[in-house]
Amino acid sequence: RKGEKILILQGLKQEVTCLCPSPDGLHLAVGYEDGSIRIFSLLSGEGNVTFSGHKAAITSLKYDQLGGRLASGSKDTDAIVWDVINESGLYRLKGHKDAITQALFLREKNLLVTSGKDTMVKWWDLDTQHCFKTMVGHRTEVWGLVLVSEDKRLITGTSDSELRAWDIAYLQEVADLEEPEPKKSKGTSPEIQDTQPEDGALETDETPEDRILTCRKAGSIMREGRDRVVNLAVDRTGRILACHGTDSVLEVFCILSKAEVQKKMDKKMKKARKKAKLNSSKGEEEDIEVSVEMTLQDEIQRVTNIKTSAKIKSFDFIHSPPQGELKAVFLLQNNLVESYSLQPSAPAPQPVRTSRITIGGHRSDRSDVRTLSFSSDNIAVLSAAAESVKIWNRATLQCIRTMTCEYALCSFFVPGDRQVVIGTKTGKLQLYDLASGNLLETIDAHDGALWSLSLSPDQRGFVTGGADKSVKFWDFELVKDENSTQKRLSVKQTRTLQLDEDVLCVRYSPNQKLLAVSLLDCTVKIFYIDTLKFFLSLYGHKLPVICMDISYDGALIATGSADRNVKIWGLDFGDCHKSLFAHDDSVMYLQFVPKSHLFFTAGKDHKIKQWDADKFEHIQTLEGHHQEIWCLAVSPSGDYVVSSSHDKSLRLWERTREPLILEEEREMQREAEYEESVAKEDQPVVPGETQGDNYFTGKKTIETVKAAERIMEAIELYRE
């Protein structure tokens, strides 16, 4: 309503993959990328309960009707039922062959139904924790599952444009079982035969498949979307059903009550009678009356489509019956939240957008933030993507200025911090004035992409390197426009250095004697600035050097490459001091901390690492991004680092006063690695138990190993 943030539920490092509010609305279950689940209280904002039993990301969470149990499905193909009140796991249900996409409790009965990417829908009897029925009627992955009409009908959404509906009939009394059921040709699922062998001995007409309930296909509803169902949901009253694919359209359906369906059928009947009267003599009328049959389209009616401003990531909705409006809230792919309202009972319902939550971030679908820089007073941060340049206040984290630009690749603040220069993918230099937010000038600098800019140490000019195999030198100058009296800043080109390969990165040495140029042939060439004569070639990388930096005293140059290595070279003789295997994927950015030989690297492996270029040691790893990191910037004071990533976030890191003890960091790293390897092992948590036992829901961690050792020690002591 107000668009204000009222609460942040602080998790750990992992990305959130799934949310589910409890039925009483007081708690929120949150599933994470690493398979842990935390339950937060929405009153205090604290997450006191943690469930860790899954090995991979959580894909589905659902509470039962009272909120006492929670069913979680994961990419590791297991479903686990947790006891929320007792804060423990009840049992693990194994059977799916691929990630689980949805798990639902039935209201009245102790049953669970799960769907998976392995095209199966499985029914579980929670008293015996066995799968008593597997539905194999789908040809593609089942992405969504809802129960409607008092759990008498199941609707599934798959990778094609049909929503399939299944009628569920519960076999309660033995009397029902005595009526002969039509035999099914489907093979019975193996679990059933194992668990209840006496079934064959009874030789009833009932196939063992239909033990607790029968499931018959009732028909299907066609969606307008051609792609897979991403989310399929039904509101609390069970009257409104909605689904969306990978596009920006939500399709809304209404599930009619029995009375409404009856009304509709009566109308149909009348029509049919009329037609019959017109067509024929009285004799045939009876036959035609009978031939009016109820189709699924009579029970589930399309209401309308809601079109959002961007692709939908997920949605949720509230419907206040009987004549009330439907409110739908969407989280969109470009990080907006929008809400729409709709009158489903109106003859031609029109959705209306009621509100949206948007904060001043980049909203580009085409690219992420590709360049960052700090102002000389450490206060302003510049970030630029394909569509805009934004200036942020570092202290308040507010966006101060937004200026439209072309696809930006590199940037810096002009000395004095009143203007900024952007280099673009089309080879242009764009000069902006910060006070007014205006574009002062656009200069065609290079014929290809302008990959790199470096400000000269005397702050009178800068150098650019581009994909047109040239390095150009520029000086700042003040020019007078015809119509104004005041002078404004401009730039003029002074020299060009032509090379044989595309230029990826350029850097001035601090004494302004040397210029380092990284080329597409995997070498870094060093030139004298005054004569542009060749001085050194640094070769050794297997793939091109994407980023590099020279230390404040001009003694060292560090280069980061797509071959995942960082090499540290001496600038006096061009000898390689050390080659470090830095990241598990390309090194995207590298920058020295001012007045020190420490440097930061950012990699496509989602990590930022800090290194010591004298002792060649890895100091620390900053984890927080969930996707590739494109660039980072270290503030001139060295107290802050800002980074941008493909996960659509900019993150600000601050240096603390607390000293870092390297041995402790190593120890923590080793523990984390050990825990990862332990979780992946296939040996059972309790020695000697077989994998089939599904009562144990925990997973092995350092804590469980330590606890087990403590118990063993205690038993030894007791024996003695």
Automatic annotation (TrEMBL):
* Single GO molecular function: snoRNA binding
Query: What Gene3D superfamilies does the database record attribute to this sequence?
Result: YVTN repeat-like/Quinoprotein amine dehydrogenase
**Which terms in the GO cellular component ontology are assigned?**
Pwp2p-containing subcomplex of 90S preribosome; small-subunit processome
Q: Which InterPro entries match?
A: Quinoprotein_ADH-like_sf, TBC1_cilium_biogenesis, WD40/YVTN_repeat-like_dom_sf, WD40_PAC1, WD40_repeat_CS, WD40_repeat_dom_sf, WD40_rpt
- CDD domains linked: WD40
The record's keywords, sorted A to Z, are: Isopeptide bond, Nucleus, Phosphoprotein, Repeat, Ubl conjugation, WD repeat
| Taxonomic superkingdom | Eukaryota
WD repeats by residue range: 9-50, 51-92, 93-134, 135-176, 443-477, 538-579, 580-621, 622-654
UniProt-annotated stretches for the region Disordered: 178-209, 674-696
User: Where does it mainly reside?
Assistant: nucleus
> Compositional bias (Acidic residues) at which positions?
196-208
Classification via Pfam families: Beta-prop_WDR3_1st, Beta-prop_WDR3_2nd
Biological process according to GO: maturation of SSU-rRNA
| Places the protein is found | Nucleus, Nucleolus
UniProt cross-references to PROSITE patterns, sorted A to Z: WD_REPEATS_1, WD_REPEATS_2, WD_REPEATS_REGION
**Composition skew (Basic and acidic residues), residue ranges:** 674-683
Entry function: Part of the small subunit (SSU) processome, first precursor of the small eukaryotic ribosomal subunit. During the assembly of the SSU processome in the nucleolus, many ribosome biogenesis factors, an RNA chaperone and ribosomal proteins associate with the nascent pre-rRNA and work in concert to generate RNA folding, modifications, rearrangements and cleavage as well as targeted degradation of pre-ribosomal RNA by the RNA exosome.
On subunit structure and binding partners, the annotation says: Part of the small subunit (SSU) processome, composed of more than 70 proteins and the RNA chaperone small nucleolar RNA (snoRNA) U3.
Q: Which family does it belong to?
A: Belongs to the WD repeat WDR3/UTP12 family.
Q: Which PANTHER family match?
A: WD REPEAT CONTAINING PROTEIN 3 WDR3 (PTHR19853), WD REPEAT-CONTAINING PROTEIN 3 (PTHR19853:SF0)
Could you identify this protein by its name? WD repeat-containing protein 3
Organism of origin is Mustela putorius furo (European domestic ferret)
